[in-house]
TrEMBL record, chain A:
This is dolichyl-diphosphooligosaccharide--protein glycotransferase. Gene3D superfamilies: 3.40.50.12610. InterPro entries: Oligo_trans_STT3, STT3-PglB_core, STT3_N. Residues 578-637 form the STT3/PglB/AglB core domain. Residues 462-494 have a biased composition (Basic and acidic residues).
Automatic annotation (TrEMBL), chain B:
Component of the oligosaccharyltransferase (OST) complex. The keyword Signal applies. It is found in: Endoplasmic reticulum membrane. It is a single-pass type I membrane protein. The gene is BnaA06g34690D. Pathway: Protein modification; protein glycosylation. It comes from Brassica napus (Rape). Belongs to the OST1 family. The chain crosses the membrane at residues 438-457. This is Dolichyl-diphosphooligosaccharide--protein glycosyltransferase subunit 1. Coiled coil: none annotated. Pfam families: Ribophorin_I.
Length: 778, 464
């Protein structure tokens, strides 16, 4: 904007630029509105509520923060989860999201806008998606000008992959982290383009925010060094590169170490080593360039040999020390999740708890089409466009897309990192394509009418006129989104003043036949329209369900299954506030947040043994399970059962993970005991171990009385064992559609204690004290 | 007809002199008939008294006496004087006030009924007294399982407690079903169907008392709202926003042991007969934007029927409530302002709204009603037909600067009979309505001016 103002006023180009600036600002505002409002389907179709599992934890943390303040938050030891271990929340959580929402809430309340914490949390993600679109605009503008920027921003505003993680209510780290990620990249590119220390500092701060927000920050701290290395190797070293990189590493690492959950990991774990290595390399290179500048070529050759030989020795020593350090740690200094990134089969081989999460599985091909849609076809074109001409900035986005494609192929969750890269590439591709086509149309038209007169002037004006002609062309057929895309083309010129001349030359070379251009334009517009339709459909149908309330459309209208909240509300109002509830870890966060009851394990999964204990209890027979639960002080056991209404992600379907994780720690649980022909079966073919395990019994207790046959609608079979009694548990609550069943541990029977006492009285007193010690439960 | 309380009231005669009581013997009750309705958990007692002045001086008022166990559960006492006979009866409401008597035996509590005109010597008057008792049915057994039905004790006296001699009296207890486990026999006493009759008893001396216990089945929903906070927010832009926070509990026999959904669903008639899962709220007509939710989101089980006289919201808590189970929820709705806000002749405005709890057949242990007046209102005052605790607070809502005055009315032990209109008067200048829009306009104006200025100011030292 400032650049625009510096032009002398009154000239047509100044007017045009001013108009373009205002127009692009308007388009950006509209893109922000689009990004925000496309994510509101969940609120309109369902309600303003927190979604799924992790967001409930974040919501609970935000509530705590807004109630108790920041210092209490850092020191928060949560005794309502991981009983009896507890969890230090302040030191184990990425605080970016909660601090952001907490700050928003605080600001709003201090100007007397009394929004509840829940409302703020629900709408944080859509608001930050708008920010992310704007950050995408800035980043792409740095790479290929503002036309591409606007196109990329519009694409990102509605890319399904990002929508899936940022609909209203999806209050998760990714909601703010994607913004932070793009913004950090933007500041890096900006620094790279300007060489300004100001932006370098901002970059470090943005990186700090990213570290606060999401564990995915390691992607940044590996990608940027790779790019720096790439620049050095391809001979693109410049002082700007040094300024973009060196302060980021120093400041960024210092700041990252301030975040409790990262702490010394910022210098100790292998994820960060690449950045330090490149840090050393860039200094060496800088030194070399400096020395090269002050020495004569001959002296320089001598110096090089000297330095290289000494440097090699030093490097070898350093590398040896590093290798020794890394090798001394059991996983080689890499965390499980990162290792499974490098070796996709690592998790399923060694860590069942990571493998058990569906979002850690590799994606399938359809999910690419679902999540980035037509962008997948535009990306290659964008990559090609980035090579003409290749700049530092465009090489960065190429590297970004290459790396993110790899990572998304490993873990479906990282599709989210791919989405911005794909949007940027597609934005560039679309923008360039429109440029070429409208340029050729303009050229053909003007050359026909003016008969080749004043070739120079017409081409000079070409960019402006292209845009307007493109606009009229498209304006008729297309909707708002499209028109915003067109507008972008116009905005690009001011930013690209420098390259205008080269462009004119290029344009002449790229002139296409008129008809071909028009057809191609129409096809591109159709492609865009298809993308918009797909995105809106995905936002409305695929990604808006909050998952705690399910709906089904039947012939007699909409049916709502609100069983989860029914039972959480029951727990919260009708059990003692200090009672402990055991369930599979999926429901831990929800139980603590909605029912406010202490849980044994939750979605944090930091302690595998503890989870294995619960898994073991669920896969043990009743008595053994009772003893395990009783030793953990558990009062209630909660199971999720979909057999009545056909809800597939219930505990019976998750049971294999309970057996696997439990068996991993406690070898007496053998997976083979539960398998018949390599399958988990609950019908008449099921193994006796299966039919007697706690999970089976709690799920199917008195199930047969519902329909007389015990037909399980998820497994589509009749259950194996229909009539049985519970001896150590009693049913205290079952929700309306049987999706959640809560059992209470029966107290130890008095009869036994009486018998023991009688025995004691009859025998000597010495024996009795021994028997007490032997069995603490009796 | 029914009523419920334990022991019950009496009349006393006052002499013309205001401060000294005449001997209680100056009044006597010729005939007393009491009908106590035990069919829901709100006990309603209808008492018909024929009072005669046998003294030499006119009596201006009389006393109703209640035993101490009833006085704390007494939600409301109303008295009507009956004039005319048979079909031409007319009822005249009388003033009833709680009263302290220094010589009250056994901590009996009193209410003072003032006659419309002093009762002359030898004259007689017929009074209809209604009193309502809450929390007076005691579940026994205290804990029941899902398949049992709920039995309760009701304790009262077979004769009316009164500081006056009663020549003749009868008491009827109406139970909700024919299942009566036991009742204390005070001859003559007998039971026919749903009715237990005590009496007639002749010529009982003052403060006669004959404790009885009725043990019977009562499966009506014991819906008790432990705490209800109603907030009525007045917006002069055209609506009243009402938000009601409920903490509901089942006040009956506590649920014991297992809750089996399969039994609850398949054998509804015998399983969980004392539980309830449907509630009805009577809301004003022309109600809109109704919502029903709790702390963790919407509750999807509700139906709204709007009508010209009233709207009915039929809703279910998230889960059926068994004895001792609790639930919390929030109901909110909006009604047009012109139906409830009026201008008084003296220029003040007043809100005319209904007190009490919209849920039918529900006891509210503690009701807090907050009337949030618009920002800038002055001199609030509330007018109610009965005594409540009043307080003033300040609340800050959207973009408030000085805050809104909140009139807080607080009353314990509220029953549906308390759903009567009340008024809150205040003064308000319409210019205050524009304060917030003007504030927003100026804020945006400021932003644009600043950006204008920023764009046109060149802070560079060196001209480029």
């Amino acid at each position: 904007m400032a650049a625009v103002e510096s032009l002398p006023p009154g000239t047509p180009s100044a007017m045009r630029n001013a108009f373009g600036t205002v127009l692009s600002a308007l388009i950006l505002v509209l893109i922000g509105v689009l990004a925000f409002s496309i994510r509101l389907f969940s609120v309109i179709k369902y309600e303003s509520v927190i979604h799924e599992f992790d967001p409930y934890f974040n919501y609970r943390v935000t509530q705590f923060l807004s109630k108790n303040g920041i210092y209490e938050f850092w020191n928060w030891f949560d005794d309502r989860t991981w009983y009896p271990l507890g969890r230090v929340i302040g030191g184990t959580v990425y605080p970016g999201l909660t601090l952001t929402a907490g700050t928003i809430w605080w600001v709003l309340n201090s100007i007397n806008i009394p929004l509840s914490v829940e409302t703020v949390c629900v709408f944080t993600a859509p608001v930050f998606s708008a920010f992310a679109s704007w950050a995408t605009y800035l980043l792409t503008k740095e790479v290929k000008g503002s036309g591409a920027g606007l196109a990329a921003a519009a694409l990102l505003a509605m890319v399904p992959s990002y929508i899936s993680r940022s609909v209203a209510g999806s209050y998760d780290n990714e909601a703010v982290a994607i913004f932070a990620l793009i913004f950090t990249f933007y500041l890096y590119i900006k620094t790279l383009n300007t060489g300004s220390l100001f932006y370098a500092t901002l970059n470090a701060i943005a990186y700090f925010y990213m570290v606060c927000s999401w564990g995915g920050y390691t992607f940044i701290i590996n990608l940027i060094p790779m790019h720096v290395l790439l620049c050095i190797v391809t001979g693109r070293y410049s002082p700007r590169l040094y300024i973009a990189y060196a302060p980021l590493v120093v400041l960024g690492t210092l700041l990252a170490a301030l975040v409790p959950v990262v702490g010394f990991n910022a210098v100790l774990t292998s994820e960060h080593f690449a950045s330090f290595l490149v840090f050393i390399i860039i200094h060496v290179v800088a030194l070399v360039y400096y020395i090269k500048g002050i020495l004569t070529p001959k002296m320089f050759k001598v110096a090089v040999t000297l330095v290289v030989s000494i440097g090699l020795v030093v490097c070898l020593i350093v590398v040896a020390v590093l290798v020794a350090l890394v090798a001394s740690s059991p996983t080689g200094g890499w965390s499980g999740r990162s290792l499974s990134l490098l070796d996709p089969t690592y998790a399923s081989k060694y860590i069942p708890i990571i493998a058990s999460v569906s979002e850690h599985q590799p994606p399938t091909w359809p999910s690419y089409f679902m999540d980035i849609n037509v962008l997948a076809f535009l990306v290659p074109a964008g990559i090609i466009a980035c090579f003409s001409p290749l700049s530092d900035a465009s090489s960065f986005v190429v590297l970004y897309i290459v790396m993110s494609v790899y990572f998304s192929g490993v873990m479906v969750r990282l599709m989210l990192v791919l989405a911005p890269a794909a949007c940027i590439m597609s934005g560039i591709a679309l923008s360039q394509a429109f440029d070429v086509f409208t340029g050729s149309i303009k050229y053909q038209l003007s050359s026909k009418s003016k008969d080749n007169a004043e070739d120079n002037t017409s081409t000079k004006n070409a960019p402006k006129d292209d845009a307007s002609s493109g606009k009229t062309d498209k304006g008729e057929e297309v909707s708002k989104e499209r028109s915003s895309k067109k507008g972008k083309k116009k905005e690009r010129e001011p930013a690209e003043k420098l390259s205008v001349k080269s462009k004119i030359v290029k344009k002449k070379a790229l002139v296409l036949p008129l008809e071909a251009s028009i057809v191609a334009l129409l096809l591109l517009i159709m492609l865009g329209a298809f993308y918009v339709i797909h995105c809106v459909w995905a936002a409305a149908e695929a990604y808006s369900a909050p998952s705690i309330v399910l709906t089904s459309q039947s012939h007699d209208g909409l049916h709502v299954f609100d069983d989860f909240r029914e039972s959480y509300a029951w727990l919260s109002h009708n059990t003692d506030v200090d009672d402990k509830v055991a369930s599979w870890w999926d429901y831990g966060y929800q139980t603590t947040a909605m029912a406010n009851r202490t849980v044994i394990v939750d979605n944090n999964t930091w302690n595998n043994t503890h989870i294995a204990t619960v898994g073991t209890a669920m896969s043990s027979p009743e008595k053994a399970a009772w003893e395990i639960f009783n030793s953990l002080d558990v009062k209630y056991v909660l199971v999720v059962f979909g057999g009545v209404i056909g809800y597939p992600s219930d505990d019976i379907n998750k049971f294999l993970w309970m057996v696997r994780i439990g068996g991993g720690e406690f070898p007496h649980i053998k997976e083979a005991d539960y398998l018949r022909d390599g399958q988990y079966r609950i019908d008449s073919e099921a193994t006796p171990t299966m039919l007697n395990c706690l999970m089976y019994k709690l799920c199917y207790y008195r199930f047969v009385e519902t329909d007389g046959k015990g037909y399980d609608r998820v497994r589509r079979t009749e259950i194996g064992k229909k009539y049985f009694k519970l001896t150590h548990f009693e049913e205290v609550f079952t929700s309306h559609h049987w999706m959640v069943r809560i059992y209470k541990l029966k107290p130890q029977k008095n009869r036994i204690r009486g018998r023991v006492k009688k025995l004691k009285q009859k025998t000597s007193s010495g024996v009795s004290s021994k028997s007490v010690k032997k069995n603490p439960w009796m | 007809m029914p009523a419920r309380n334990w022991i019950f009231a009496v009349a006393v005669a006052l002499f013309l002199s205001l401060s000294t009581f005449s001997s209680a013997q100056d009044l006597q009750i010729v005939n007393a008939e009491r009908r106590i309705d035990l069919s829901s958990h709100i006990v309603k007692a209808f008492l018909t008294l024929k009072v005669e002045n046998i003294g030499k001086d006119p009596a201006a008022d009389m006393l109703l006496a209640f035993p101490p166990t009833q006085i704390k559960n007494l939600a409301m006492v109303q008295a009507l004087a009956v004039t005319g006979k048979k079909k031409k009866k007319t009822y005249l409401p009388l003033d009833v006030k709680p009263s302290e008597q220094p010589d009250a035996p056994n901590d009996a509590g009193y209410f003072l009924v003032s006659f419309a005109t002093p009762l002359g010597p030898g004259e007689a008057v017929t009074l209809e007294v209604l009193y309502i008792l809450t929390h007076s049915l005691e579940p026994f057994p205290v804990e029941i399982t899902q398949s049992e039905s709920q039995l309760v004790y009701y304790r009262d006296s077979a004769v009316v407690l009164s500081p006056y001699r009663i020549k003749q009296q009868t008491t009827f207890f109406k139970t909700p079903s024919t299942r009566v486990e036991s009742f204390t026999s005070v001859e003559p006493a007998n039971r026919a169907g749903k009715e237990i009759k005590y009496g007639a008893y002749e010529d009982r001396v003052p403060y006669s008392y004959a404790p009885v216990i009725v043990h019977f089945e009562n499966n009506s929903p014991f819906a008790v709202v432990e705490e209800l906070v109603r907030e009525i927010e007045i917006s002069h832009w055209g609506s009243l926003q009402i938000t009601e926070n409920y903490r509901l509990t089942h006040g009956g026999a506590r649920h014991k042991g297992v809750f089996s959904r399969v039994e609850y669903q398949s054998r509804r008639s015998i399983s969980g007969s004392s539980s309830f899962n449907a509630l009805l709220a009577v809301l004003p007509p022309r109600v809109n934007s109704v919502y029903y939710r709790d702390n963790i989101g919407n509750i999807s089980t509700s139906h709204l029927r709007t009508g010209f006289k009233k709207s009915e919201l039929e809703f279910e808590p998230r889960y059926p409530l068994f004895g001792g189970w609790k639930a919390t929820f929030i109901i909110g709705y909006r009604v047009p302002l012109e139906d409830y806000l009026f201008e008084a002749p003296d220029g003040r405005r007043y809100l005319n709204f209904t007190f009490g709890c919209p849920l039918v057949e529900t006891i509210v242990n503690k009701l807090t009603l907050k009337v949030v007046l618009p920002e800038g209102s002055k001199d609030p005052s509330a007018v109610l037909p009965f005594a409540v605790n009043q307080d003033l607070q300040v609340k800050y809502s959207y973009l408030d600067i000085v805050g809104r005055t909140v009139v807080v009315l607080q009353k314990d032990n509220v029953v549906p009979t308390h759903n009567v209109p009340f008024q809150v008067y205040y003064t308000f200048k319409p210019i205050y309505m524009l304060a917030e829009p003007l504030m927003l306009v100026s804020a945006f104006f400021f932003v644009f001016v600043t950006s204008l200025a920023y764009v046109h100011i060149d802070l560079n030292i060196v001209k480029k």
